[in-house]
Amino acid sequence: MSFNNLDTLYRQVIMDHYKNPRNKGTLNEGLTLEMNNPTCGDRIQLHFIIEGEVVIDAKFEGEGCSISLASASMMTQVVKGKSVEEALKLSQYFSNMMLGKETDSDDLELGDIEALQGVQKFPARIKCATLAWKAMEKAIDQEDEM
C-alpha cells in the first residue's frame, strides 16, 4: 500500500473514532480523572474500573479536537481487559511513537492506535494525542497510592 493510501486510511480511522467514539460515557464506580490541555482547550474525563491488576472497564467524556477525542476512544478500547502493566506498556509505546522514537510492538495488541502515528509530524498536536494516555497514567498512579 502506498504512503498516500496508508495516510488516507489512517485519517479515516481517526475520523471514525471521532465521529463514532467507542466507550464514551461515565462509570458509576471506580476511578475518575479529569485533565485538560490549556494550549488548545482539549478536556478529557476518564473513568476506569480496575480490579486486582486488570482494567475491567474504561470510558471517557470530553471536548476537544478530533485527534484528542479519537485518541481517547482508541485508548479506552485497547486497554480494556488488559493488565495495568500492559496498559502502562501501551502508554509508553504510544508516547515513544508520538516522539518518533523507535518502538517495539511485537508483544502489544495495538488496535487502531497506530493510525495516530502521523501526528508526530505535527508537534503542536502531540499533546492532543497524548492527553488521554497521560490521564490514564495519572489515574493508575492515584490507584496505586490508595
Protein model, in words:
This protein is an alpha+beta fold. 47% of the residues lie in helices and 18% in strands. It is built from four helices and three strands, in the order H-E-E-E-H-H-H. It has helices at 3-19, 66-79, 84-98, 123-145; strands at residues 31-37, 42-51, 54-63. Strands 1-2-3 form a three-stranded antiparallel beta sheet. Strand 1 (31-37) and strand 2 (42-51) form a beta hairpin. Helix 1 (3-19) crosses helix 2 (66-79).
- Structural category is alpha+beta
From the coordinates shown, what is the CATH architecture? Alpha-Beta Complex
Average residue-wise pLDDT: 91
Q: Beta-sheet strand percentage? A: 15-25%
Contiguous runs where pLDDT drops below 50 for at least 5 residues: none
Q: For the record, what CATH class applies? A: Alpha Beta
What is CATH's topology name? Sufe protein. Chain: A
State the end-to-end CA separation. 48 Å
Biggest pleated sheet: 3 strands, antiparallel
* Lateral arrangement of strands in the main beta sheet: 1-2-3
Give the number of helices. 4
Q: How many E-type strands?
A: 3
What is the radius of gyration computed over CA atoms, rounded to a whole number of angstroms?
14 Å
Helix % is: 40-55%
Overall spatial form:
globular
Q: Number of folding domains?
A: 1
List the helices and strands in order.
HEEEHHH
